[in-house]
Amino acid sequence: MNTSPTPTNGKSRGRRWFRRGHRWVGLSLVAFVIYLSVSGIALNHSGDLELERRYLDWPWLLDAYGLEVPTPSASFADSGHRATLLGERLFLDGRDTGQREAALNGIAALGPLVLVAGKQSVFLFTDGGEFVEAIDLGARLTGPIERVGRTGDRAVLQTASESLQSDPDVALFEPWDNVSGAHWSVSTPPDAAEIAALESAWRGRGVTVERLLLDLHSGRIFSAAGPLLMDLVAALLILLSVSGIILSRVRNRRK
Amino acid sequence: MHQRIAVLLLFVAGLALAGPVGEAGRYIETEEYLDSAFPAGVPATQTLWLKGDLRADVERLLGHRFSGLRVRYWMDESRSAWILNEIGKELPITIGVAISSGAIASVDVLEFRESRGWEVRYPFFTDQFVDARLGPNDKLDRRIDGITGATMSVDAVTRVAQVALLLHEHVTNAN
Q1: A6 inside domain
Q2: What order of strands is seen across the sheet that includes strand A89-92?
Q3: ipTM
Q4: Parent domain of A220
């Protein structure tokens, strides 16, 4: 008895495998199609949904992104207020001020206002921590700010070659020579509770929803293998389209 | 033939090394800007607290919350100068607006921090603001032509021009 498949049987078996393959590849890609479509639609409307302004603070996600909180490079306290520089981000009383500065040289609590000094700029906040103004003193100063202090309700700044005192509104700075009468700001490390609050504040703005969606869509969220997986999914989708057309033509021919 | 190829390669290398014609950076220092805005002598710095209705008006023109409670300005008898920051796409553009008798005398981009849109610094764009005043609904009384590829920067400069005119009007009326 001849058990070898006839050409007709072989063809029909091949078609059956082709159909099965098409079906199983299609089913296995359903989740990816939904995943890519939903993330794509969200990214298309990123502006309307303000995804670039929404931040995620899930610890596991931030760990996955490797967002390590830098060690405070400088921290100063005065009259219950503390200014700390993490990286180039300036924090006041444990909150991100939204201001960037390369160096932090002191803080002076002046009643209703709090002055924080960087290298060539000073930042003013209300006693409640609301940002008032950034004053660029770059052209006014003969060198970078080295010390910050207060005398009465006025702020004082010192560079290597001069000292300046503010007016009561902390709007203008004029030369000043009574350096010994000032209370100068001294760097002190934040305690454990303050560091925990700073880390929480720093990480809280770590990842925007838009960035997460972009990384999910491209596969970059899964490190180096992610983009390769997405490439494979894309290739399978192309194959699926082609096999779908072929199957459709075969079915039409039969009819 | 070899000479032509060499010249072509030199030309391409020159283009690559030359970089873009204009780019982000600090173009004018504050003191330099104020000297040009007040040739007869820079008046003393003044500050204006943005509170209540004035703050609401400023934020309406900007279309977002104003960062900061106080702005500084310089004013002599009828001329004022304002240095304001406004975000184009992600980073602030520092813009100086000089106003004389209720109309814009000049608009200058002092610092541009983003990689695109720096064309707003050029006079072909900023000169459009000269003599502009506030019209109905605190909009400029003229149309400002945009720049392809710099729409957000153009909008930011236009918003700052409107805010500066509004603030000038406020301090003039207060005086």
Answers
A1: no
A2: A74-78, A81-86, A89-92, A95-100
A3: 0.73
A4: 13-64+206-254
